[in-house]
Amino acid sequence: MDTKNVMIVGVGGQGSLLASKLLGHLLVEEGYDVKVSEVHGMSQRGGSVVTYVRYGDKVYSPIIDEGEADLIISFELLEAARHLPFLKKTGRIVTNTQQIDPMPVITGAAEYPEGLVSKMESTGAAVDAMDALSLAEEAGSVKAVNLVLLGRASKYFDIDDAKWMSAIEACVPPKFLELNKKAFELGRK
User: If you average pLDDT over residues 121-131, what whole number do you get?
Assistant: First the structure.
């Protein structure tokens, strides 16, 4: 199989690293050669965090260049828009509609852009936007946004639900397991 490229983008502290670990684990279990690479901005200060997950028969590099991402999973709306140039013409963005103000907005030097979903769609991008934060709260914790988004993204993989659940069990600490499974299921629906 040709190499497939997934980018997971967000803001520090949103759980994108667990999401990439879980996805990588799942894909290895499916028999793919997998490369995962993390790029941290000022992640502890709410800065951008990007993770690349590449998989296929043989993957030689962990890096995804512009125009190569088959799927972008975005934990924050502006991050989805910022990373749009990485999406293939035939790719898809699964994004949370949550808005987290970056530093220029916080300091008053800029305004948070309006209508980002429409702007992304106007470029021809396939955008699957959802309020993952509300579903995470329904599951029991705002910190479960990552599993809600993975649940939604799972619809675009040809991998059985039971295998996703096995990956969650392998990667999530036992005390948070039921919460994360519920978040995944809510996102999947």
Answer: 97
